[in-house]
C-alpha cells in the first residue's frame, strides 16, 4: 500500500503537490473547473496541517515560444485562489531566483503555484523527458512530495517521477480515490460487466482490449475506432477513419471473441464532419464511398441497450460519435442516458468521455468520472505506472 499525504507530519514543511490543472482555457476563462475542484481536498488538507504548499502542474503541449502566452497557469492561480478563499501566489517561471526567494519567504498555510512545467520542454523536453537535473532542482524546493495528478500517473516526467525520486513522497486524496474506484474494475467486478470503447483510434485501446476481453462479458465498440473493426470484418467503410496497420489485430480479436465484441449495425454518415451538414442513417453495408461514419445509429443504440440494461458494472472510455457537433451527438447522449438509468456501478474514463458527461449534464448520475483518460486505461491494462510505482510503500 502506497504512502499518502496522511502519513506525514506536514507542519512547517514545504510540501510540493503535483496537481493536474490541465484544463481548457479560452481567453483567460477556464471552461471546465472539474480538475481544479478535484484537487481542493488535498490542498486544503495540507493547509489545515500548516504546510507551506507549492503547486506544480502542466497545461497543454508547449512546443514553441509562442505557446507560453496560451498555456500560462496564471488564470488557474486566480481561480484556485477564489475556490480556496486564499490568495495563491503565482510565480511566472519554472526555476530561478524569484521562485526560490518566494518559497524561502513562505509562511505556514501559504500557497504558491509555479508556472507550467511544460515550459521546460522548450529546452530539450526536460519535463516530458524526465531530465534528472530538473527533477533534482524542483525537489530541492521542498521537503515532501505529494503526487495528486492522476492524469499523468502513467508518465515518466520530471515533475512526478523526477521529484519523487529525490524526496519522501506519497499520493494525495485524488489519486487515492481514483485507485480505489478503478480497482472495482480489476478486482472481481460484479457481473455482468460491460465495457464501452469509443474514440478515434484502435491503437489507443489495444492494451485495454487485450487485457479486459477475458474479464468483461462484452465490449461494445463505437466511435472512429469501430470502422477499423468493421473494415477488418469485411465491410466497406467509405471514407471513414481507419488504422490500416491495426486491421490484423482487429480481425484476430473478432475471430477469437466474436461473441464478446459487439460492433455497430448502423451509423450516421456525412460527406464532411461539420455542423449543419446533410446526414444519413445507414446500415453498415450501405455506407457510400464518399461518406464517413460519425456516430452510431438508432438501431445500434437499441442493440447496445440490450447489453447494458442488466449490467452490474459498466466502464466507458471514448465517445461513440463526434459529440461536439449536434448532428453526431445523439449516440453519446443516448448511451449516457442508458447507463445512468441502470443500477450498475458506472465508471467513465476521463478525457472526452468525461467532457461529454459534463456537457450533457450527466456528471452527477455516474458513479465515478476519472480525471485521467489515458491513465485510467493504463491502470486497467495493468501495465507499469511509473509515477505511482515510485511512491514509497507504507
CATH class of the largest domain: Alpha Beta
How many domains comprise the coordinates? Answer: 2
Per DSSP E runs of 2 or more residues, the count of β-strands stands at 17
CATH architectural name of the largest domain? 3-Layer(aba) Sandwich
Mean pLDDT across all residues, rounded? Answer: 96
Instruction: Identify the overall geometry.
Output: elongated
Physical arrangement of strands within the biggest beta sheet: 5-6-4-1-7-8
Multimeric organization: single chain
Strand content: 15-25%
CATH topology of the largest domain: Rossmann fold
Low-confidence residue ranges: none
Terminal CA distance reads: 6 Å
CATH superfamily of the largest domain: Phosphoglycerate kinase, N-terminal domain
* Rg calculated over all Cα atoms: 22 Å
Brief sketch in words of this structure:
By secondary structure, this protein is α/β, with parallel strands linked by helices. The chain is built from 15 helices and 17 strands.
How would you characterize this protein structure?
The structure is a single chain. This protein has two domains: 172 residues, Rossmann fold (3-Layer(aba) Sandwich); 194 residues, Rossmann fold (3-Layer(aba) Sandwich), CATH 3.40.50.1260. The protein has 394 residues and is α/β, with parallel strands linked by helices. 35% of the residues lie in helices and 16% in strands. The model has no long low-confidence stretch (mean pLDDT 96). The chain has 15 helices and 17 strands. It has a six-stranded parallel beta sheet with strand order 5-6-4-1-7-8, with helices on both faces. Strand 5, helix 4 and strand 6 form a beta-alpha-beta unit. Helix 1 packs across helix 3 and helix 5 crosses helix 6.
